[in-house]
Design brief:
Elements: H1 2-25, H2 30-47, H3 52-60, H4 63-75, H5 78-91, H6 93-116, H7 122-125, H8 132-136, H9 139-143, H10 158-173, H11 177-196, H12 202-226
Helix pairs in contact: 1-6, 4-11, 5-6, 6-10, 6-12, 10-11, 10-12
């Protein structure tokens, strides 16, 4: 148990450092990021989902709502991810490995999108948006130092995507109805918070969810292809059945 946990800590910490390091190196230039953000807005307008101003106006009107949005954005991300890893390592290793691998795969996809299509978040595109996390909270600087931040990594929102994966894992392993309700509500709150804090566009959330689910699907396919099935023949024996007799 201790050896497995120590090895997983090394893998996860290494992946986090690599993720933030590569994400920082792939930061695009402001002009390109702003131009891409405008394209994102154009797509949103075509589908009628350009509601960022309405969502944030409702938050900035209330100090309580703004604090709640900041807390969800900050404390329901890495603290929840790491806490879930620890919980699953102790109670359900197969589910932990599925979640870990889905996050690694979706993180890799996200890095490629960050590099190919840098997008400025609302807080950097227009002064009409308020950067509530930076202006009203200091906790985020401890959890994610500015040196590791790619300002133009808005698309996709892995804040939401990874929270969605965590919610799916919680729902799968939950034994109580209350925990399953929390598993459903948590990603919904994160989707609201990333927009309310002006860190992501609505389309970032949609793509973030798609990227996360793609990572999960690829992990399920990988697992199915590499796991022996009952009744299949191996080199010397049949798993789940009797060995073939020799002539």
């Amino acid at each position: 148990m201790l050896r497995f946990a120590a090895w997983q800590v090394a893998i996860v910490v290494g992946a986090i450092v690599a993720y933030f390091g590569v994400r920082g190196l792939t930061e695009g230039d402001p002009a390109t990021a702003n131009r891409n953000a405008t394209r994102v807005l154009d797509v949103e307008h075509a589908f009628g989902i350009d509601v960022e101003h309405y969502v944030q106006d409702a938050v900035t009107f209330s100090a309580l709502a703004m604090t709640l949005a900041n807390w969800v954005y900050i404390w329901m991300h890495w603290p929840v991810v790491i806490g879930t890893f620890i919980w699953l390592i102790r109670t359900n290793r197969p589910e932990y490995l599925r979640l870990r691998n889905a996050m690694l795969i979706s993180g890799l996809i996200g890095l490629m999108i960050f590099a190919a299509f840098p997008v400025a978040p609302p807080r950097l595109l227009s002064p009409d948006f308020v950067d509530t996390v930076t202006q009203r909270s200091y906790s985020y600087r401890m959890l994610q130092p500015p040196a590791f931040v790619n300002r133009f990594a808005a698309m996709p929102s892995l804040h939401f995507g990874w929270n969605l994966l965590v919610g799916i894992s919680w729902y799968r392993v939950a034994r109580s109805r209350r925990l399953r309700i929390v598993a459903i509500v948590m990603p919904v709150l994160m989707a609201w918070a990333v927009v309310a804090t002006a860190n992501h566009w609505v389309l970032d959330v949609v793509v973030g969810g798609a990227v996360a689910l793609t990572g999960l699907l690829l992990e399920i396919i990988r697992h199915d292809l590499t796991t022996p099935r009952i009744g299949t023949f191996g080199p010397r024996r049949m798993v789940g059945g009797s060995a073939p007799s020799s002539a």
